[in-house]
Amino acid sequence: MAGIGHNNGPAMDAAARLRVNQWRTAQAQLMRQTIPLTIVRMRMKRATELGLDYKTYARVRQASGRDILALMFSSNALRIIGQGAKMPADRDAVLARVKRADQLALVHRPNTPEAVLAANPTLHDAAAAPLFTDSWSTMRDRVAGLIQTRNLPGDTVLVVGDAPLEADWYAAARAAGYLTAEAYFGAQG
Length: 189
Hints:
There is one protein chain. By secondary structure, the protein is of the alpha/beta class. About 45% of the residues lie in helices and about 15% in strands. A five-stranded parallel beta sheet has the order 3-2-1-4-5, with helices on both faces. The mean pLDDT is about 90.
């Protein structure tokens, strides 16, 4: 047992290097270097269902360790701006192709979540977006609140936004990741 002043540095005994080598060898044997082809095919299909390219889907899945069960869009990303609660037809068509995932929206003023849901049947749920003047805890509560109303774990939700402050939503909600609207909708073209 180390005494006072010990910095818990590496062991200096002769067998330390051997133990480290054995540990790294065992760990390398346990970790597969490649993913089986059937798993890759299933994940490619899932990426397509979500409207994502495989590389983006794999990156988000690797970071969160879970599948994406919902896409949460800002009203800016959906181009629901001003008093018009309807998103453009091209964005609506992209969302209509998404399979087996909730489609959520955080709506900026002057629109309301109710009006946006009524005008956009492809969306499953909506809530008021955080204001740029909101504190971190208020922002977290608003973003995570929508996720919790759908009974989803935060790390299964991918946030898609179109303004700099919306990138913080993913961290506030402990979501799976963040994509810009251009990265999500641009890949659909």
